[in-house]
């Protein structure tokens, strides 16, 4: 890219009281791309978005959005961005159309223009049937789509989406993903935060993994997957001797281990060929491994691989419990992580 | 400025969708007026028809009830996601708060007119000339404006819409220990000092004087000073509170 970055930040720091939320965040986002900030609750995702969207000043560091400094050139930044936060920013007591028209008027569109833009967005986000009822009657997914549409009324260059699908059911999440994918075709830059590996994977050109207020890894989804793997092969051993022998042999390649259940996890792409090769490699005598299962890598696995520790606090505890319940679906695991 | 107008329209639309709150705010003073006039009025001697005596007080109650809603809507905005969206669109606190206050003034003007209408129906017969009426409207408008800003200010202090509703209780109570419903000299002695010097009393006295074509004395300018003072302090404080909450 020869263009200047759409978003660039260096050394962002922020504390709330004694709590250090950001400890030096560096980012660079190419224009026209989708960038995801991936991390658990409390990693500093929302704070980063608030700083980049000029709502909160950083304690230290600099950031530019569309080439404008977020502190000294705040007004010009605000003219080219939109923010869709975690809490719905639409009025429940107004209809979908009224909300969009109001946003149009607030972004200096004329009356007729605002009406036209509202109609256009309702159509594009599959909300034409919802134009008349008040937002209070909307489903969660419709509300998110309207919220996102409201952010687009003023033709922003850079769109910030703070956890756009948290709390949505799988179908609404899918619909939201389609909408977000459609945004970049207009040439805008999308900066989103998420706790879901799958979401970052589906949407983002580049992903930054944040933990404890720092970016711990950054790259394309494929690059990160090489380090984390999209799936995990869990091997259950017949006895502790076999478990220990293999654990020793695998060393750093282990992404999961549970001695109580004699289970080890290694990264895999989930294909039959790869799983077969792994089994042959790990257990050539075909005696040590009793059973196996393949499951989607969760944020815990990403963290295990990237930071050498489980996602801190409660989210780690959730990971433990999930292992104990022997669940094998990544999606379930992710939902639990979201519930933390 | 244009932002404030758009946001005033927004608050009015929200009001129309929440008609029960508006009706309650209007019916309560009307009910109180009916109760006072038909149940208590006979026992209260004011030197004039009781309904005529009590109307200014009912007007202020009405303004109190009507603007209390502003505290709730302001808190609602401040605690929801919409405040971040407005700020990221570079809409300032002044426009946001002015939108709420302007809508409150419009809402109260309609409510006050209706309450005046009901008062006429039950025998309210003022003897004011056109100029007196103009002055009555001016003082009422100042009072509504002041109390609306005060309400917006409470809305910025409160952390939840429920708490905001509670904050405005004091404003609605203030007309009782004043000359609004009974002459002050019938109250216990220890209350006289407060009742005579609290902001509601000069407003009531000025309105009553104008409506009954009696000399208003100092009460007119006292009323304006009180309202103006509350207005300036509440608006200034609101601005500061808004900046602090969004820092």
From TrEMBL, chain A:
Example GO biological process: doxorubicin transport
Membrane topology: Peripheral membrane protein
Limits of the ABC transporter domain: 7-237
Gene Ontology terms, MF aspect: ABC-type xenobiotic transporter activity; ATP binding; ATP hydrolysis activity
Keyword tags: Antibiotic resistance, ATP-binding, Cell membrane, Membrane, Nucleotide-binding, Translocase, Transport
Residue ranges, compositional bias (Basic and acidic residues): 318-340
Region (Disordered): 310-340
Pfam families on file: ABC_tran
Broad enzyme group: translocase
GO cellular component: plasma membrane
Keyword Cytoplasm: no
Top-level division of the source organism's lineage: Bacteria
Residues that span the membrane, as ranges: none
SUPFAM superfamilies (alphabetical): P-loop containing nucleoside triphosphate hydrolases
UniProt keyword annotation of Cell membrane present: yes
EC number, as in UniProt: 7.6.2.2
Subcellular location as annotated: Cell membrane
PANTHER family (UniProt xref): ABC TRANSPORTER ATP-BINDING PROTEIN, DOXORUBICIN RESISTANCE ATP-BINDING PROTEIN DRRA
Family recorded in the similarity comment: Belongs to the ABC transporter superfamily. Drug exporter-1 (DrugE1) (TC 3.A.1.105) family.
Protein name as it appears in the record: ABC-type xenobiotic transporter
UniProt organism field: Streptomyces malaysiensis subsp. samsunensis
Lineage: Bacteria, Bacillati, Actinomycetota, Actinomycetes, Kitasatosporales
TrEMBL record, chain B:
Entry's Gene Ontology BP terms: response to antibiotic
Topology in membrane: Multi-pass membrane protein
Keyword Transmembrane helix among UniProt keywords: yes
InterPro entries: ABC2_TM, ABC2_TM_bact-type, ABC_2_transport, Nod_factor_ABC_transporter
Residues covered by the ABC transmembrane type-2 domain: 20-245
Keyword field contains Flavoprotein: no
GO molecular function: ABC-type transporter activity
Compartment annotation: Cell membrane; Membrane
Any Gene Ontology CC annotation: ATP-binding cassette (ABC) transporter complex
Keywords of the record: Antibiotic resistance, Cell membrane, Membrane, Transmembrane, Transmembrane helix, Transport
Transmembrane segments: 21-44, 50-74, 95-122, 134-157, 164-184, 220-242
PANTHER family noted in UniProt: NODULATION PROTEIN J
Family indicated by similarity: Belongs to the ABC-2 integral membrane protein family.
Name of the protein in question: Transport permease protein
Organism: Streptomyces malaysiensis subsp. samsunensis
């Amino acid at each position: 890219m020869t263009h200047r970055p759409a978003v660039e930040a260096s050394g962002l720091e922020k504390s709330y009281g004694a709590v250090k939320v950001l400890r030096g965040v560096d980012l660079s986002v190419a224009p026209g791309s989708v960038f995801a900030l991936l991390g658990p609750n409390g990693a500093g995702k929302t704070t980063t978005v608030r700083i980049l969207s000029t709502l909160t000043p950083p304690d230290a560091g600099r950031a530019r959005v569309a080439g404008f400094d977020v502190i000294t050139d705040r007004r010009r930044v605000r003219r080219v961005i939109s923010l869709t936060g975690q809490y719905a920013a639409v009025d429940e007591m107004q209809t979908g159309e009224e909300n969009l028209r109001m946003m149009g008027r607030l972004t200096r569109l004329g009356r007729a223009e605002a009406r036209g833009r509202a109609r256009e967005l309702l159509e594009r986000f599959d909300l034409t049937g919802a134009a008349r009822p008040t937002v209070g009657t909307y489903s969660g997914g419709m509300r998110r789509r309207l919220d996102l549409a409201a952010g687009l009324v003023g033709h922003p260059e850079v769109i910030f989406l703070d956890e756009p699908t948290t709390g949505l059911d799988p179908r609404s999440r899918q619909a939201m993903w389609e909408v977000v994918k459609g945004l970049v075709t207009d040439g805008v830059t999308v900066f989103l935060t998420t706790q879901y590996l799958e979401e970052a994977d589906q949407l983002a050109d580049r992903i930054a993994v944040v933990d404890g207020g720092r970016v711990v890894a950054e790259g394309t989804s494929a690059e990160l997957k090489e380090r984390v793997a999209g799936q995990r092969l869990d091997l259950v051993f017949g006895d502790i001797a076999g478990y220990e022998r293999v654990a020793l042999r695998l060393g750093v390649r282990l992404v999961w281990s549970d001695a109580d259940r004699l289970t080890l996890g290694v990264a895999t792409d989930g294909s039959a060929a790869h799983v077969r090769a792994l089994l042959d490699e790990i257990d050539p005598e075909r005696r040590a491994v009793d059973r196996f299962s393949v499951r989607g890598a969760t944020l815990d696995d990403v963290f295990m691989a990237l930071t050498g520790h489980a996602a801190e606090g409660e989210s780690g505890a959730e990971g433990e419990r999930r292992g104990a319940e022997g669940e094998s679906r990544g999606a379930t695991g992710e939902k639990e992580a979201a519930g933390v | 400025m244009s932002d404030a107008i758009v946001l005033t329209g927004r608050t009015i639309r929200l009001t129309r969708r929440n008609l029960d709150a508006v009706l309650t705010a209007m019916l309560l003073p009307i009910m109180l007026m009916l109760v006072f006039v038909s149940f208590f009025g006979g026992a209260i001697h004011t030197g004039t028809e009781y309904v005529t005596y009590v109307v200014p007080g009912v007007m202020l109650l009405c303004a109190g009830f009507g603007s209390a809603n502003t505290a709730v809507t302001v808190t609602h905005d401040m605690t929801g996601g919409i405040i971040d969206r407005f700020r990221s669109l570079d809409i300032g606190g002044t426009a946001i708060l002015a939108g709420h206050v302007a809508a409150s003034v419009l809402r109260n003007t309609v409510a006050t007119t209706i309450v005046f209408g009901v008062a006429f129906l039950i025998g309210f017969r003022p003897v004011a000339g056109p100029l007196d009426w103009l002055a009555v409207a001016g003082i009422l408008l100042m009072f509504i404006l002041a109390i609306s800003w005060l309400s917006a200010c409470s809305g910025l202090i409160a952390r939840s819409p429920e708490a905001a509703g509670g904050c405005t209780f004091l404003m609605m109570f203030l007309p009782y220990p004043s000359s609004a419903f009974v002459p002050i000299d019938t109250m216990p002695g220890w209350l006289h000092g407060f009742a005579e010097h609290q902001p509601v009393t000069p407003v009531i006295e000025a309105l009553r004087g104008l409506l009954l074509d009696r000399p208003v004395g100092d009460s007119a300018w006292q009323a304006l000073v009180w309202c103006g003072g509350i207005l300036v302090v509440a608006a200034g404080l609101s601005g500061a509170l808004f900046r602090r909450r969004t820092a």
